[in-house]
Amino acid sequence: MLLSISTFQLKSQIPQPGIYQFNNQQQNYFGGIHYARFFNAIDDFLSMQIVPYKEVADFHLKYAIVAVDKTNKQVKIAFLRDTVNAKTKMPGSPYFSQEFLINKDSVYVTSNYESALAGSGSLPGSWFFSKSGYDYFGIYKPPLVKTQSIKDTLSGNYKNGSNYQFEQAFFLWRGKMPKPYLDLRTNDHNDKVFIYDQPKPKAAVKDYFRKGETIVITSNDSQEWYGVDRIEVRKDNQKYYTMDYGMKEGTTFLQTTSGWIKKEDLAVSPWIKQKQQTKLYRFEISVEDEYLKAIKIINKKTGRQQVILDIWAELKSNPVNVIQVVDCNFDGYPDMTFLMQTGGAGPNYTDNFYLYNPITGNFDYNDELSQLSQIQINTKTKTIRSDWRDGAAHHGGEKYVFINQQLTKIADWDQQALTGYFAQESSGELVNGRWVEHNFKGAEVLFNAVPVYKNPDELKAPVDTVSKGSYALIKDENALFFYTEITTTANQFIKGWVKKENFLPQTKSRYTESTPLYDFELIKDNESNPVAIKINTKASGKTMQYLTEVDGVDSTNNTLYPDDYNFDGYPDFSLRTSSRDDAEAGNLYENYYLYDHAASLFKIDTTLSNLPNLEFDSKNKTFSTTRFTKKDSQIQKHIKIYKTQGDKYIIINETNKYEEHKKE
Predict the structure, then answer these.
(1) Are 309 and 266 in contact (CB under 8 A)?
(2) Which helix (H) or strand (E) holds 606?
(3) 327, 331, 336, 338: CA torsion to nearest 10
(4) For residue 553, what is the enclosing H or E element?
């Protein structure tokens, strides 16, 4: 059940666990500032009224039980109804409940937090816990605002304004010492859950709590039992003397029955036996609405049980095959695992992992493994692989080992599609205790019977061929070839040189400009995204180079800009790029490809390509870049002037100018 809590959030001191009682004297623990923030304007305010919280008053919620579990960082509250004096009947359970989070040393009130006390109601509104030495908590609803008009009896004029009506309730702590209240549990399924006088198989039954009731957990040290308090509102027939009212009959008191309950009694019956077992243990599960809700682990020799509640896992297999047994941490002891949930973006499923603890004989939840998706456990190599997928164009994974029983990542990889036919491949590995990163490109072969050469020389016979769909990891390249590690469609692994044209589509369009020696063609994919630039010699018409570093090139602009950008006497060229994040401020970019006359190749210059609004001065062999930044009503122009010295760019001047921003 989702709670209707406002977005207003509070951090307050953690309340004392124990019994709280409704403050029927209507004492207000809020200051004026608390209410003032709700008022629209001073002249709009006419009057304010504070009334009892309707659900609290109507259903006689006289008492509240507060349980605090600092280990699991949660606070739970259950409200007890004064059924002795209530004149109206409330449908369903006589319990209301609420759950909160603990952040450091404070209670953190969140919005839309789902209550863990299933089967009970919730009180909508905003919650307030004491920030002072007093132990109390309150709940209030946003004000009901009504417009009113009041006549001034003296002047006869009418005054218009708004009346603010707040519903609120406060509960005060009754105890002198904190109670050992760790948790609250609701009986959702069984008509009766027995309360025993001892945590033993043949213990006597003291009491029971009915379906829909909430019970207090006072001890959780056993794997099979909870220590509990059942608290019941009873009629008090004794008479008490008070200074104000003389002899007065009491109304109600709280009767507490302490004892023990079996954890398995809180789950849905019948229990389903599992096929997979270990030599020492067998497993049973409790299922509700096609979800796994609880697991019972039975020691075959001693009969000792470990009961795990509060599971919310999907059932995607035969109910007798849910629990899987495998040595997940390679310590020689079988562990337990089962599906948690199927994730988004395709196969991002996760499993829950419980590792066997040979010292305690329990199966302990392992959060690290349970957070990983698509786990594959290789007991031969003693490695764990986890894969993930973030849509069709982005996926990756990691590889782990256990070192001194600590899960340790030894490798990872990440593949993300780039513009066109290429993907970005990044990977890392742990080498002698040091993490080493690698970055490569990858692409699929687009044609059948593609030759793979030992050296980048097509005049020699190929060492192998690959077919369409084979995936290549590109480790190196020259003008016309990629050096690749290819995984074929038949799952073979081949290394060698492959011509770049085998990874590129056949669609080409000529640029309107060229240099004296070369012509240029732009290769695009089916969506008109630039994939590569094909460079041909004018003299022979042969292809001398493929440039595949064209990310960001403007697909709507087929204009190439030739010029000598590094002032070495050889023509270079540039291409306009698509708008970047700061284009709105007036920052325009181009990709600059400089000619290396020694290698007779063009290479992208990343320094120039990342500077906006470049202007070149060939006479002085300098260039300037202007970066625009908008701030309030001004535009800042950050100007840098560089001098070219060989293959280095040296800043020789830097200035800032400010202009008034003229809005259109």
Answers:
(1) yes
(2) helix 606-609
(3) -60
(4) none
Q: How far apart are CA 349 and CA 475, in angstroms?
A: 32
Query: What is the identity of the amino acid at 524?
Result: K
Contact by Cβ (8 Å): 642, 631 = no
Residue 382 pLDDT exceeds 90: yes
Cis peptide bond prior to 124, omega within 30° of 0:
no
Distance CA 386, CA 394 (A): 15
Give the residue from 132, 109, 106 showing the smallest Cα distance to 13: 106
Average pLDDT, the chain: 85
Rounded to 5°, the CA angle 466-528-549 comes to 65
Question: CB–CB of 66/76 below 8 Å?
Answer: yes
Confidence check: pLDDT of 131 > 90: no
Q: Under a CB-based contact definition with an 8 Å cutoff, are residues 220 and 183 in contact?
A: yes
Q: Determine how β-strand 493-499 pairs with β-strand 508-510.
A: unpaired
Mean pLDDT, rounded, for 336-342: 90
Beta bridge partners of 443: 422, 472
CA 20 – CA 11 distance, rounded (Å): 20
The rounded radius of gyration (Å) of the Cα atoms in the chain is: 37
**φ, ψ dihedrals at 114, nearest 5°:** -85, 130
Sheet order of strands, 422-431 included: 375-378, 383-389, 394-403, 406-417, 422-431, 434-444, 471-477, 481-487, 493-499
Phi/psi zone of residue 346: left (φ > 0), alpha (ψ -120 to 50 degrees), beta?
Answer: left
The answer to pTM > 0.85 is no
Mean of the pLDDT values across residues 244-272? Answer: 81
Least confident of 6-15, 209-218, 257-266, 583-592: 6-15
Closest CA to 537 of 515, 517, 560, 510: 517
pLDDT digits (tens, 9 = 90+) for 168-212: 899 999 888 889 999 998 888 888 999 999 999 889 999 998 888
Q: 36 Cβ partners below 8 Å, 6+ apart?
A: none
586 DSSP assignment: T
Partnered with residue 137 across adjacent β-strands are 129, 171
According to DSSP, the β-strands at 543-547 and 530-537 are antiparallel
Q: How far from each other are the two terminal CA atoms of the chain, in whole angstroms?
A: 51
Question: How far apart are alpha carbons 474 and 472 in whole angstroms?
Answer: 6
Map tokens 């304004």 to a residue: 161
Token pair for 292 = 């796994």
Beta bridge partner(s), residue 209: 193
CA distances to 366, 580, 610, 642 from 331, rounded to whole Å, are 14, 52, 52, 62
State the DSSP code for 588: -
- Find the range with the poorest average confidence among 64-68, 197-201, 357-361, 417-421: 417-421
Give the pLDDT confidence score for residue 662 in this predicted structure: 57
CA-CA distance, 132 to 255, in Å (whole number)? 30
pLDDT of residue 624: 97
CA 476 to chain CA centroid, Å, is 37
For the record, the structure tokens of 122 come out as: 């919730």
Rank 12-26, 105-119, 524-538 by mean pLDDT and report only the highest: 524-538
Q: Is 299 helix (H, G, I), strand (E, B) or coil?
A: strand
Q: How many CB atoms lie within 10 A of CB 181?
A: 22
The arithmetic mean of pLDDT across residues 473-500, rounded, is 93
pLDDT-derived band at 645 (thresholds 50, 70, 90) equals confident
